[in-house]
Amino acid sequence: MARYSSGFAALDVTDSRRYDSKFIEFIADYDRNDQFFIMKLPYSWLSQFVDRLPPPEVVAELLTMRGFEVEEISCPGSEIKDIIVAKILEMAPHPDADKLTLCQVTDGSQQHEIVCGAKNMKAGDHVALAYIGTVLPGNFKLEKRKIRGIYSQGMLCSTRELGLGDDHAGIMILPPEYKIGRRLIDEMGLNDSVFEINVTPNRPDALSVLGIAREIAAALGEKAHVPGASLVSSDKEIDLVPSIDLVDGDLCPRYTALILKDVKIGPSPQWVKDRLEACGVRSVNNAVDATNLVLMEMGQPLHAFDLDKLHEKRIVVRRGRIGEKLVSIDGDERILDEEMLVIADAEVPCAVAGVMGGLESEVSEETTAILLESAYFDPSCIRRTSKRLGLSSEASYRFERGVDFETVIPASYRCAQLILELAGGYAAGSMGIADTPDCERLESLRGRMVRLRYAYCDRLLGQIVPRDEMEKILVSLQFSVEKKDKESMTLRVPSHRLDVCIEADLAEEIARCYGYEKFTPTLPAAPVKAPEPQEIDRGMALRIRQYLIGFGLDEAVTYSFSDPEGMKAFPPEGVSFQCDETTVLNPINVNEATMRTAILPSLLQCAKRNAARGNADFGLFELARIYLPQESGHEENRMISGVIVGNPGADWRSGKKERDFFDVKGLVEGMLSLCALRRYRSIEGPACLHPKRGATIQEGKQTLGYYGELHPNLAEKYELPGRVLVFEIGLKPLSDAYRSYTARYRPFSLFPAIKRDIALLMPEGVPARKVETIIRRESGDLLENLEMFDYYRGKQVAQGFISAAFRMTYRSREGTLKDDEIDVLIGKILNGLKKELDVQLRS
Length: 843
Known about the structure:
alpha+beta, 22 helices, 6-stranded antiparallel sheet, single chain, disordered N terminus, 7-stranded mixed sheet
């Protein structure tokens, strides 16, 4: 679907001197209120403005391609297209029913006998006749049937049955001028096509018949007819000029008033009601209907005051005062303030400017003199007032987006003409006009000058549009060419096109009217730079996630802010918690006052909430950043951290109630192996871990992280039951190892293996990793696999010692190994263990 927006204009908002600041302020509102206004418009009304108007379907396609999407084309009378105007010739009582009447009705060519239950008609009345077989609104099909023994040859319809009103007390009596035998919709003007048009917020000029007619005329190469705006002067009170006191001219650059006297307020003629109803506007009375008719016709809101209800019969345009109140036409009391513009008389406010009139001064049946208002109000002021009061109207919607300054006076004359035609009376004196003393503002509202460079337009559109075609398009849209040369042309923007401010807007108009379908699609040309390598390998991070999920853990996402007190239990090396570099200037609360230096406190808080809600077996992990303060700035490191409570994933077959140190050790070692990290060692864990069930991982002199059982005091602080297993490891070293690892093929040995088990007596405090290091060193290349399969501490082992059993698998690629060869290796291993670690073979 084609939708027109000011996308091009947004590209070049660079020089504020080229804009009216007031215009920019309300244009910004489009972004906050980016919605489409659905406007209903009768085809017949458009045809009065444009000669040789194409059929409705062609008009709809034309508007849609120019940025005004036509949602629907409807016909108000489509459901009653078969109803005929008829005349009652005779009436007689039904022979078998006191409440029924027999009517002899003619449609001009044939006479019909109708049984009717209504009593409000008489012979000679024109009525709406539905034949047998006609389908009425509500999908009710009229069928031939007997009514108390007499066949009724049709039905005389009420307004409710035709969907034209709610009256069901009697049948619909039609005006005598309706021609017998003609379709009812033809006589009532309901055979018209009505467009429902999406008008974008940046095109307030198109919120009228005249605005849409300009677009259609430009597309057809025609010129739209502007309604006549002359007013026949009266010889009565020729010196009378309405009194206008323009106090706040910055919010109202122009205010005009006309006085009409001896008017007679009453219902409007049917053609006015039909036209307004087609546009979705309710008829009120002839004076108010005239203002609404001009609003829909020319896009200029107007308001009619009862002149006799204005104190001193004068108008004061000023800001509201604190504490002032006004009862608006809808009956609600409105509280005013100093930021709202009001239309007042000599004493009190009579209307909220540009939004809604007051109940006290509204036109009623007793009104004989009218003060007709037509003005230009500052868009941003009207928008603020409308939002603050929670009050919106057809007038405020247009004033918020900007009306045509040059239409203020013609629209007033046009409306006065209509009122005098519909309500009688005369125009007293001449029009009162009050303008702001800011001449520069007035000049800008009459239309700005914009220069269009041909080369710039070609570059912006990506295609060359012929120069004469550019000029033809802009002139058809009523832009006037003031100056032109080989490189550019300078144009005056018409006063109704408030959305055109810079040359990019002109280029957009050219593209819109030239036809988007004529542009050749091209890919934008831009230099493509190879992406910089990621600090952490994405493939490795994905494998780690899948590995931990397979282990029964769930991934968590927590805030980067944390409690500085909670961080102190997990201090990275050399970090001061008083560093301003990681302190949040406007923390959400005191518990989120610093950027975190560890992930575990956040995960432990999650674990605490889970445990409090009865979740006893779960595991959580997170890949995220930590922020380490430095002397200048801070350093960001990505970490992988986890918490395990109970035995996640366990079922009735699981023997263990909770996982222990060796489970988290196996998890971490498997993760390191997954990342191809082979050479590392485990030393004593940090203070946040259990003194005997924790380890720090080191590669050379670099600390990678830690794992183990959380210190019981910390587990109690976080209200976590049983053993709580944790780990936190830096991802950068794992990523480096993962990227540097290259898989190499080694052929399988064709010779059998020899397995040997040794049980060792080890002093407490000797890490198993050191024992494994000596076994690997002394075994050389023949060692294929090494594992510790038993660990024991108890009565059968001397105090201060533990028993550990290791299984070694030896295999050669050159031949079958002999027992004496393996015995030599075992001897070397035992000598090394005794000499370096005081570890001996258990007897």
